[in-house]
Amino acid sequence: MLEKLEDPSRLEIFHPEAVLNKFGLKEGMVVLDVGTGTGFYLPYLSKLVGEKGKVYAVDIEPKLLAYAKKRVEDLRLRNVEVLKSEEDSIPLPESSIDFIFMAFVFHELKEPQKYLEEIKRVAKAHATLLIVDWTKIDRDKGPPPSEVYSEDEVQNYLRRAGIEVERIEMFNKYAYAIVGKINKKGPSI
Question: Taking the model in full, what pTM does it have?
């Protein structure tokens, strides 16, 4: 599994530095990298948010988290913190995240609707959610189509969670991106 997660050809499918700014990631933001795995995308996220920003990397797999922590230490990514999470629980306070990044993770969620509610809990009002995942077609990389969600299926999950779908973009035959805006109602005055 580590070989797949560390394969540099992943950048041919989706290159974060070339794309993340386009989807609203800015310097100074607080980012949540859901399902960080080995931390493959952490150097890019760290660079894009800069010294004033912060990246929280979460995963449920201890061995992958150890690998990600080592990457953070080796690269001296001072604005990145790696945390163990659970499928239904993110160890962060409410309304603390500006930008949620889920790269090739959504299809692995056991209970997507429940997880989206947890994402909404940690997200600030009007936070951005970027989901990048595999297309539901035959391809020579990634999981079989039967194990992933189509763009329409993901859109339906987001809508049911009250997350506004702002944009869908196909990168290539392998991957698509869905950008959602978290809608949280503020306190009534």
Answer: 0.91
